[in-house]
Amino acid sequence: MFHPAYLKFVADRFRAWPEDPARTFTHAVLGLRTEWDEFLNADSPENEKEEVGDFLFYCAALYPLAEITHEWEPTSSEMEQADIHDFHRNLEALTDMAKKWLAYSKQPTPLEIRNHLIPVMTHIAWMEDLRLPSTIEANRAKLARRYPNGFSTQAAIARADKEPGQ
Ligand SMILES: [Mg+2]
Description:
This protein has about 170 residues and is an all-alpha fold. It has helices at about 5-15, 20-40, 45-65, 75-80, 85-105, 110-130, 130-145, 155-160.
């Protein structure tokens, strides 16, 4: 679903803690939850597209922990079967995993992460349909403005791609 260059781009801009995968995983899962809320509250089609792009960024950020390779693509029958209830169930499962990993050191396997992440992404792929490549590209372009040289806390706070007050 993601081009290898986009996955590398995300890996350079997603704040991760290699020594603390529970924290890294929780960061990505909270990202999914907050971006989905932003999508639900979006006030224009452009804004919706931006928030779906942000959501996809956190999906891509989870690829290493889920051990998904860039070749993975949802099939058309998987997309047809994906429904919003499944999407929510799987998003909840990822959130529950994050809580248990962070609080009780109960580490999920990459397969367990993958089994919940894939239905989430399949639903987004169905939802976005032919717009998917341009949604991902718009996210890449936004983050290239915000983080021209990769992730930095300063750039995250300054958000060079936004006008003051936005
Ligand atoms: Mg957002």
